[in-house]
Specification:
Elements lengths: L5 H4 L5 E4 L2 E7 L8 E7 L3 E5 L5 E15 L5 E4 L4 E4 L5 E16 L22
Antiparallel strand pairs: 1-2, 2-3, 3-8, 4-8, 5-6, 5-7, 5-8
């Protein structure tokens, strides 16, 4: 059984910030459960572009507001508490934040913990361990 709090993760190697976002990585690949689980916050009045080419991500918005734009189709979706979106097709997307957003995110395959987005908005491909 694994029990962790965001308080104990804060300020550790599991607490990653870059640009307008901060990710507290509660469950990581090293925990051996097949997914990673994060609490992510994105600052108000920010715009971030992402493209998870190697991961599927599910996002549950618990606080704040903004919009999600599918950069492949131009489709725009409002984001607010209770909204979930799933990037099951590796969609390039933009998150525009009006009021600071806090989200709970699941990644498959799991991230290792120190990933940050590259110039394309992606995390690197997971390393296969033989």
């Amino acid at each position: 059984m694994i029990v962790r709090t965001t308080t104990e993760i804060t300020g550790t190697e599991r607490d990653i910030s870059a640009g307008a976002w901060r990710s507290k990585r509660i469950i990581l690949a090293g925990d051996g459960v097949g997914f990673s689980f994060h609490e992510t916050t994105i600052e108000a009045a920010s715009v971030s572009e992402f493209h998870y080419q190697h991961h599927v991500e599910a996002v549950w918005v618990v606080e704040g507001s903004g919009t999600l734009t599918d950069l492949e189709t131009g489709e725009v979706h409002p984001l607010g508490p209770g909204t979930m979106y799933l990037l099951d097709g590796h969609e390039r997307h933009r998150v525009t934040v009006d009021e600071q957003m806090r989200m709970l995110c699941v990644f498959n395959p799991p991230v290792t913990g120190d990933e940050v987005h590259d110039e394309t908005g992606a995390y690197p491909a997971p390393q296969v361990v033989a």
